[in-house]
Amino acid sequence: MELHGEQRISLGRQAVWDALNDPGVLRSCIPMCESVEKDGDNEFRIAMMAAVGPVRARFKATMKYAQVDAPRACTMVFEAQGGPAGFGKGDAKLTLAEDGPVTVLGYRVSAKVGGKLAQIGSRLVDAAAAKVADEFFARFNEVVVKARAEPAGSGPPPVAAPPRRLPKALVVIVVVAVLALLAYLLRR
Fold first, then answer.
1. Where in the sequence is the domain holding 55, given as residue range(s)?
2. Number of domains in the chain
3. 85-107, pLDDT tens digit by residue?
4. The domain that contains 47 carries what CATH number?
5. Nearest residue to 163 via CA among 33, 24, 28
6. Is the pTM of this model over 0.85?
């Protein structure tokens, strides 16, 4: 499966890169994400739930980044296992380009899936993938853009940073990998 697209985010490139590298932000924005943990110098583990039609499973994923050009781009490789529900693996290229005060986040994903998720109709998978991507970016914009736009002391409190911060490239890779994996699993 090949998937590509872009999102416009009302923040500067560095601010978007930083937010995509904040595990607390990612956990709050990725639908059904349970955890993001570092596992070595350039490898990470992610646990999350995924649901497509009647198939619902907990996935354990590993992501490894191969190239990073912060804050402009990165390439990552991912694998996910969901037990009897299936598996997914592939790679994703992420770019961040400035367009005035807005950042254009582009992504291109190549992925393969197998198991029960691969047997679900493509229309159901496409609809679920679009819903997950829309939900992620809606949450991301709400959490990050609104938090940075409000002056100190007004509005909701800022997003609390976790005690341990993951490398920036890792967070970007995790977001892209999760979106890519879900989109791919949903399209099959």
1. 2-187
2. 1
3. 888 888 889 899 999 999 999 98
4. 3.30.530.20
5. 24
6. no
